[in-house]
Fold each of these.
Amino acid sequence: MYKAQISVSLRRSILDPQGKATHNALSQLGFDGIDQVRIGKLIEMKISADSKDDAESMARRACEKLLANPVTEDFEVEIISESP
Amino acid sequence: MQPLIHPVDSLRCGVIVFPGSNCDHDVYHVLKHDLKQNVSFIWHKEKSAGNVDLVIIPGGFSYGDALRSGAIARFSPIMKDIVRFAKAGGLVLGICNGFQVLCESGLLPGALMRNRSLRFVCKNVSIRTETQSSPFTCELQKGSILTIPIAHGEGNYIASGETLNMLESEDRVVFRYCEPDGEITDASNPNGSANNIAGILNAGRNVLGMMPHPERCSDILLGGEDGSGIFNSVFSHARRAVPA
């Protein structure tokens, strides 16, 4: 069993109004050194697969097919743990 | 002004119903009772849309907008047949969540993101008819301005520069948000959509996706009837397409 952590975020070229609003709020609260805030999604999956590579490959296919919209979003996949 | 109602006995309309659709009955009512067409609901688990001339994917929150609006609905069993129907030239109208489903399914290019304001916007807006050259606008005049309700949180149309250029050069932008006098301004853009886009066609011009709700303004009792021009265009188109 593998645990995959997938982050889906708006592509860099796309304005992120949620991140911008949050950045403004942080600035008003006195957090001066924060230059940018981007907000995305974290998706965790438990995957039964024969190998770490298989688990990662399945997670990537899931992103391409459903989890991320290629028009607006980028994704990153990380297999963070494995247990018997 | 009375709406132009051209009943076509043979026009069969199918309204797709996903879990979370909530404008399905509005569309059904307008088509059946105001415009006197044959209309049936099609549950999303059906594998075939059956014998229909027009498929409508209505507004709502299919699957509660889980993941992204339209992202899960587009894999419902019925969608395979809708894609087949559309590719064969069948008429498909996606309204609001229906537009989102059409973009997710790849039948229309681009995507609909969170409104620029981050707020759900529910109000009447003005849209300008940009082309008469479609089954959905053939009874409207190019440049005519419709007053029509919107109600969405994710209607901010986005596409690559290349795609936007293609939509513009192929005359596939059907409606644009505008001022009441027709001027296209940033202030009249309720959600931040690229080029003030409110509705687009596929390359075959038989699939229209639009954020505004024509079914909510096709009966004077509901406060307006500008939307009936879109449905009546479809009926006129269908009547012309059927040999006498």
Amino acid sequence: MNADLKEFIRRALEKQAKREEIAQALRQAGWAEPDIAAALDIYAEMPFVTPVPKPKPYLSAREVFVYLVMFTALYKTVYDVGALGFNYVTHLFPDPSLDVSFNFSDEIRWRISSLVVVFPLFLYTFRLIEKAIAADPAQRESRPRKWLTYLTLLIATVTLVCDVSYLVYNALGGELSIRIALKASIVAILAGGNFFYFLMQMRQGERV
Amino acid sequence: MKISPSLFAGFIAFSVALAIAGGLTIIDSPRTSRLKRLDVKRLRDLQGLSAAINTFKSKTHGLPETLDQVTREQSAVAINLRDDAQQPYEYRVKDDASYELCARFDANDGGGYAYGLPGGGKHPAGRYCFGVTAAR
């Protein structure tokens, strides 16, 4: 948060300026709408001799731990689902250019075993976090949450970029088969679903 | 556009259920997996026997008459003469350079690979004999 902007709003509110007037002045000075809204949101809308700051959203170490567990469990869940999808596609449409017959059973057993443990962990921590946000919507704005959500968006974006590159690479190599298309679709659905949800979450947070 | 957390959790749950269901249709049942692992162990035993017979032949310039002869010569290497059910592996000399090694398998090709056995050790379920030509 820009210190000058914060100071300007504090002084304006002290001089009994209305919030709409302050916003109008800042707009004319060229400040962006989200910056104006965020800066005005620092002070509570209540009558008092001086502007009263709102409490900053704060996550305790315990909550950061829950976030880290939730995101790690989510990444592992999505990765295992994708890997199982890939194995299923390879099982249905074996690659005739590979002469080594690969036994998937062991890997599939590992992935299923991992999902049986890690998915309930994701669901449990996800629900814990959603309950905490429902009880205190200010948590939506907390920094660790934003950082981890943007990190998830970054991972999803990189995955989607690699996915499209994988399609182009295979198309150039004359391998644009149903097998490649299905694998690329699995990645697109999983990474795209996550990207879309967390992007919407961030936008919702900015509107709050 | 707003996506509720429940909808997102549902999307993940659905993909997990689909992935597990798909995976379960590919893998063997726990019982078959166990039987196949035992088959792989039998195949490893036969591979060990075949290697020991080769070593015996290179030392003595002849095939052993019985597997006991091999174990006496190869005391440094652990050689299993019986499978998990304590059934002895069968050994039969065919001529100067070739012999048969037989075992009983529970499943049709358990996924194991054995060097030195024909076809890498591919076998049907039941009693099966591998015709092996000893290394010169």
